[in-house]
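queue> holo job accepted (fe (ii) ion)
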Amino acid sequence: MPAIAPSILAADFSQLGEQVKLTEAGGANRVHVDVMDGHFVPNLSMGSIVCKGLRPVTKMPLEVHLMVEAPAKFLDDFVKSGADSFIFHLEVEPEPTEMIQHIRSLGKKVGLAVNPNFAIEKLKRYIPEIDLALCMTVFPGFGGQKYIPESTARIRQIRQWIRELNPACELEVDGGIDARTIGEASAAGANVFVAGTAIFGAKEGATAATKHLHDLAAAAAT
Ligand SMILES: O=C(CO)[C@H](O)[C@H](O)COP(=O)(O)O
Ligand SMILES: [Fe+2]
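queue> job finished
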């Protein structure tokens, strides 16, 4: 079963709780919280206070995507604020085992992300240690970008390694996922789909858009 993770980066922050509930009504499975520090990526976004605000509003797990240079610094505050899982980048932690174990010791799930120009071979050896691999399908830092077509072959390769090394590991895609691209990513082997603009910017509303993406991903799944 595919999972849809609405990225609140694209939500209307004047009514964030309501926006998240709309996606939950459409069958969303987890909330994707994009944390940017202005160093690892050229943009600033949100911190743990957003998780604290959302925690009482939704039953969905809160997944924190750390696009920051020093992810370890922020973990405790996010845990206190109700975060359920952390994704950090292999670019900033080239030897990630200690960080993976630290996140597990906090009782949280752990994901490892790679940017579109990062050698995925370096991710391979850590697949047995993680709960989720995140294949970025845009360069991180901004919502509303276009899916990079070369991502599809990368997704297919990572899925093959996951089958061989750790079949329980999830494969997430993030960036430019919409009704036109989700089928391709799903057919290539992704099973968790982050979508911001395609959900919160949808003419038909966030509930219908979430359901539509879910149906398309399920129909294309291999
Ligand atoms: O990590 C991210 C950006 O760095 C976001 O999760 C991603 O861009 C989602 O936005 P959209 O669906 O609009 O592309
Ligand atoms: Fe993200």
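queue> Residues 7, 9-10, 32, 34, 65, 67, 138, 140-141, 143-145, 174-177, 194-198 surround ribulose-5-phosphate (ligand 1) (CB under 6 Å).
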